[in-house]
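Subgroup meeting minutes
Present: P.N., E.W., G.H.
Scribe: E.W.

1. P.N. recapped why we're keeping a running log of single-chain structure predictions: easier to compare across weeks, and new members can see raw inputs and outputs side by side.
2. G.H. added today's entry (244 aa).
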Amino acid sequence: MAANNHIALELLRKAHPPQTATTIFTEKVLHKPLLLRPTSPDPNSQDARARRRLQRVRKKEKSRRRQKPKPLSAKEKRVTGIYDVSKDLQKYHLYVTLYRMWIRYIWEILGMVKGKANRVTPQGAGVKLASADFHGAKVMVVRSKSVSLVGLRGIVVRDTKFTFQIITQQNELKVMPKIHTIFRIQIPQPDAVEENPNAKLDKDIGDEEMGENVLIFELHGTSFEHRAIDRATKKFKPHNMVDL
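Output recorded in log:
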């Protein structure tokens, strides 16, 4: 009885014959649920949505904290002076130990071993020296287009792309450009420093007391105008020096 008085059946009877209206009502309306959207959202679903949004925000903040800090710009480095050598540290004796460490490092680079005949050729050693790290090396300027630099010698405290910064025996910080400059380094043989090694290594470049068991190299600064970390992976090839 209730189905005969259904509003949907009355509307269908106005548009279709009675038998057709009854069939449509039975198949399409009576036995099929009608899903309606609620007029107000479910409070539980709103809470779940808010929780998901809060989780996304927290996850994003956590990943942001894990990110590496942004490196300093060149201007910020100059302002902070993080690479500057302060006056208190411009003391020659502070870097003598660094020089001794560099000698043993360059022995390993060149394959020089105590008690063995070490054959070092310019062809083999040139590429290795060009890619080596010179922090701690003793260098001396033998030729340069800037006459005031000739004769300067000291321990390298900073090896930049275009300059060597050295500490002289007069406790002065000097900046020497690599371009159009030839540097000399002297490397004693391992066997020559077995007796009293520190006294041998502490001799300055050009001292006659260094003896004959010393390898002397002259490096053209124009050829390795690269940072030390970049030279380690760079392949150097021999070529003519047209600027000398």
